[in-house]
Amino acid sequence: MRREVRAVERLGAVILAAGLSSRMGEFKPLLPIGGVSMIRRVVDLMRGAGAETVVVTGYRHKALEAHLVGCGVRFVHNPDYRHTQMLDSLRLGLGALPAGCGRFLLSPVDVPLVRPRTVRALLALDAPFVRPLYRGEPGHPVVFRAGLLPLIRCYSGSGGLGGLVETCGVPVRELEVDDLGVCMDGDTREQYNALLRAYQTIQDGRCGA
Asked: What are the MobA-like NTP transferase domain coordinates in residue numbering (predicted)?
């Protein structure tokens, strides 16, 4: 009796790291949390999920590329990073991924404390667009199907990817997760300090387990 072999769906990931870090005052992708940079934490999360990963760079792109040598990611540079929006960088990132990806993960560079099990739970849901919630607050990463690519390419409205989803009536699955990391970003010095405290709390919990 012949068994039917089911093909594994190809997964892509885009990490948005083109910004100026102007609110932080320092170049946030390279800021450390527990001795590991923000961007390396997000890269490891995406690669650990089995995703072919593209990092969209802009400001200090050469420093980012040098920092991630050997990490198994692709890079695409947004030369207009000072004047473009998130959706423009997303389009560049999607265009740099190999053809044939059925689904995509998307994360900003400054959301570094998401747990791998959260990503696995998001990927287990079958919907055009999936996003995590923590106590009702939406966060990252989001997951979307390749069927949204034509809309992403042509959308000219406001609000980025979230605006596209709302305006175009894309069906959304929301998953409540026990993971504060989905809603913690490091956009300012105060938020970065909160990330450091949260990381230490996680480590203390592991040591006491």
From this structure: 13-166
Q: What is the pTM of this model?
A: 0.93
**Amino acid residing at 117:** R
- Evaluate whether 180 touches 111 at the Cβ level (below 8 Å): no
Are 109 and 58 a contacting pair, CB within 8 Å? no
Query: How is the chain split into domains, by residue range?
Result: 11-208
pLDDT tens-digit readout, 74-109:
999 999 999 999 999 999 999 999 999 999 999 999
Lookup: tokens for 20: 């100026």
Would you say 41 and 113 are in contact if contact means Cβ atoms under 8 Å apart?
yes
Q: Which residues of 129-144 are buried (b: 16+ CB within 10 A; e: fewer)?
A: bbbbebeeeebbbbbb
Cα 167–chain centre separation:
22
